[in-house]
Amino acid sequence: MNPARLPLRHRLLLTVLLPVTLLVAAMAGLFLHRGERMTQDAIVERGVAIVSFFAPAAEYGVISGNPGILDGLLQALVTQPDVVAVAVYERGGELIASHGEARLLEPARVKSVRQPSRLEQRDGRKGFAAPVMSVPLVVDEIGVQEAAGVPGPVGWVYVELDTSELDAEWRSTMLTTLGLALVTLLFAALLATRLANQVGRPVARLVDAVRRMAAGDLDVQVPDHAGSEELRELQLGFNSMARSIGSAHKLMQAKIDEATARLAHQALHDPLTALPNRRAFEQALEEMVAASRRADDRGALCFIDLDHFKAVNDTAGHAAGDALLRTVADLIRQRLRAEDIVCRIGGDEFAMILRGCTSADAYRIADGLCEAVRELRFMWEGREFRIGASIGFAIIDGTMESVAEVLHAADHACYAVKREGRGRVMEYVPEPPASSAG
Ligand SMILES: Nc1nc2c(ncn2[C@@H]2O[C@H](COP(=O)(O)OP(=O)(O)OP(=O)(O)O)[C@@H](O)[C@H]2O)c(=O)[nH]1
């Protein structure tokens, strides 16, 4: 596991807890180890001290072989709080006197002892033994003095101590130490968790918010109440930055939507008259023709070509021609029903798609328009201009195969009006099929 890949919160926890745990464990271990050694050493020292004192004191009793002499000494020893058994052996290994119940006593081992020492320890007890040495005296011309040479032991003493109370005390000290170490670790863990939460959580939320922003969620905000002032500033800064980016994005999106709508409108409308253009006209006509073939939906396509429009352009200029085109567009628009469509399909050419009408209806509407254009008095810089309109129409009733056929029919009718003198309305009449020569 690579610690660098851990989340920040876990890394903070690890950084604080690992050294603290190691330190507490090392301190507790050292304390327990040294404490135990010192306690055991003190007990051994005491046991050795007791047998060291006991051996010379028992010398006379051992040499005399009289247990009665040793009795008082043994009684005094067992009154010591931790001394539970004492025993005295003579040179041959025979037990001379004893007191208390010795559990670890092995006479053979006692007799092998050459100096005060610990023999055995088990079940909360420790056994100590020491040789009883007798220093023989010689009487010479100087007086009474110790004989030369190393004498052998004349007997042995044995003392057994009960250390269970000390052991229990030591166990309790050990448990207290371990408990303290545990409490210290828990406290450290609590502080580390708080620290990790105070720093790690806000940072994790910020990271998450940045990711959501990158994924397109620009309304994202983070809570701004982190414990540390620097983090709080970071949170507030992020929120204000996110708000700015969000509103800039919304503004930009609104402009894009507006531009897109404008482009879409421009693509389908004539800039001069604001009427639907040729493209929109073709779409509308396709729908109308499809509807007429699908259902019994009748309509009419009218082509309007202005008469003598060029004269206005030539006499009063292009601006006048433009103004006149706008006037005529308004005129046609005002005369149409809501369900009808009027488009500018060329220079001075307009087209109307009339829905749900018969041939008579279409004629009436077109004728009314023709009359209105004829009546129009267009004024430009104090001069009056008059124009006319030639209108040809074709009925859309599902009998024609295609849009092209309908277009051709209306155009044909309009051309016929132009040819026959302008200024009126004519319906397209299909030519009768050529009769077969009889
Ligand atoms: N002002 C203006 N003139 C245009 C525009 N588009 C085309 N024209 C002009 O409109 C005229 C149309 O020509 P015609 O239809 O032959 O002119 P007309 O006098 O109506 O002829 P008839 O239809 O035979 O009566 C041309 O002179 C074009 O230059 C435009 O957007 N603005």
Features:
438 residues; alpha+beta; Beta-Lactamase; Alpha-Beta Plaits; 2 domains; five-stranded antiparallel beta sheet; 10 helices; 55% helix; binds guanosine-5'-triphosphate; Rev_trsase/Diguanyl_cyclase; transmembrane; diguanylate cyclase activity; Nucleotide_cyclase
Structural class, by secondary structure, is alpha+beta
The major β-sheet equals: 5 strands, antiparallel
Corresponding CATH superfamily of the largest domain: PAS domain
Overall 3D geometry? rod-shaped
Number of domains: 2
The CATH class designation of the largest domain is: Alpha Beta
Ligand list = guanosine-5'-triphosphate
The CATH architecture of the largest domain comes to: 2-Layer Sandwich
Helix content: 55-70%
Number of helices: 10
Strand portion = 15-25%
The overall strand count is 14
Provide the residue-averaged pLDDT.
90
Domain HAMP: 197-250
Keywords: Membrane, Transmembrane, Transmembrane helix
GO molecular function, one term: diguanylate cyclase activity
Catalytic activity: 2 GTP = 3',3'-c-di-GMP + 2 diphosphate
